[in-house]
Amino acid sequence: MSSSVPILELAELSLRFGGIKALQAVSIGVAAGRIHSIIGPNGAGKSTVLNCISGMYRPQGAIRFDGQDLLRRRPHERPLLGIARTFQNIALFREESVLDNVMAGGHHRLKSGILRGALYWTRFGCREEERRLRDEAVEAIELLGIGELGERPVSDLPFGDQKRVELARAMVSRPKLLLLDEPMAGMNDSEKAELAQVVRKLNREKHITVVIIEHDVGVVRRISDTVTVLDFGKKIAEGGPEEVMKDPAVRKAYLGEEEP
Amino acid sequence: MNLESDRYRSVKAGNRLGAVVLVLGVGIASQFLSGSQLALLTVITIYALAGMGLNLLTGNAGLISIAHAAFMGVGAFSAAYLNVNLGVPALPSILLAGGIAAAVGLLFGLPSLRLKGVYLVMASFSAQIILFWFFEQARWLTGGEDGRFVERPIVLGIDLQEGSRYYLLVLAFAVLGAVAYANLLRTRMGRAFAAVRENPRAAEIMGVNLFRTKMTAFAVSTFYAGVAGALMAWYLEFVAIQAFSLFISIQLLALVIIGGLGTLAGAVLGALFIVLTPELLDGLALQLGMETGQMAPVRQGIFGLLIVIFLLYEPHGMARSWRRLTTYLFLKISK
Ligand SMILES: Nc1ncnc2c1ncn2[C@@H]1O[C@H](COP(=O)(O)OP(=O)(O)OP(=O)(O)O)[C@@H](O)[C@H]1O
Ligand SMILES: [Mg+2]
Fold first, then answer.
1. Does domain A1-82+175-260 have CATH number 1.10.10.10?
2. I need a labelling partner for B214 at 20 to 30 A (CA). Which of B6, B94, B107, B193 fits?
């Protein structure tokens, strides 16, 4: 087991949208090298937590990542710090090909600007770094089983494959922390199992810390080291998956939901 | 990898070969064309270059401008002033003209950080108005409403008075511009432009600095416009500020939309369409025995109608039809 030093610390996060208290003093510590799930009923504030981490919302409270005060950083600085994410309702560059989308994940790692881009194949050009990035992007989509879709525009693809493209794009950014918002939505059980395998692999082999939002309790049980449960913007439970699932407050929160 | 991408790659290689043949063909043909044909070819080539610049901004980065003729004007008068008045050699004058247009473009691009869609169009409209007003006032630079004369330069010891020689200079810049454009599109900044256009929120999360990327798009785009303007000034020799009016700006926007947003072929095909259609309509009218006076309004009407028909039936522009055609032919031949 890896160390339990928190790489990411959310302290007393609160955020409201008009009358809705989306987050109420939520504190979560994510240990380095773990897979940390966030679960809870619809509207509990799960996506809001990820949006705060990636700088799209500005909550009250504090967010520390790897010794940095994240609330002082602009959204586009996240990849440089080592944070990548996927979105619940897909945020791809729709008219671009799968490979171009995935390669966009490498934006912060490459250096070439206009001149080195325009001079592509000359000595000053960026052909080498582009090729390396492309190889890495191909590797990522092959790992996710969509290797043959590289040249297709993403808007042609079914929902599940678009989710895979998002994950590949996040992988190519080589994050330390990967935030996944329902990456398995729209997949059947065997597809979910395959994707869970990939997430595990990234976590074990590349030592990427993962925060994942997932509704499928079975999946959550299998892959999580730690589970945080949110309900109406509040943290109602946290701990190992088995322990959390037994918690009466959690069972109550899930009552009336599709899944126990 | 697999069949699909192999095919894709060979179609691409075919396109590249086609482009080389086209450039060589046009270069050689230009030396044998009549005066009026050469004039058309020169204007098409210059508009294609300006079109690439506007396409980068509008087609790729998704930022609409109806001020690009004004940016061409900035380039045109800068080059004229540098070369004719200050005696700066022609090639540096052209590049500096591009640089000055880019600096002005950056300034007028600033609102794009806050403004989107139709509001951004209005901002570029005011850029066009302000710059055109400046052209009217700055008689020392532009000759104001009387226009000014710009003598064609001597480049690397070659006198470019002769239209066919001058065309080779224009072609050289267009080819450089095209190569740079194609290269940009497939590299990091090209992807950043597309990201900003398609999904700014996701672009930011990928590490794209929106402000920097938009400013870069403006700078590069208006650099192209400035260079195209410089080339236009020397082609015209007598430069009237009307060559850089709002009407021309809108024509340039029509060029990239009809030709195909975001593609190199789109800029070239759009330039062909914009320049040749009115000519063909004129020819047709002459055949039908119409008089010049009757022709003009009818021509404008039909031209406008053609644009609308295009938007309705091929919203992705001529480049899309062109690609379908060449891919089809290529696969036929390679079987
Ligand atoms: N940008 C926003 N503007 C207004 N309200 C918002 C916004 N984002 C989230 N909310 C509200 O905040 C609450 C929490 O939303 P959030 O998206 O975080 O839920 P969630 O736990 O991800 O739910 P789901 O499982 O449905 O994805 C909801 O009531 C939602 O309507
Ligand atoms: Mg959500």
1. no
2. B94
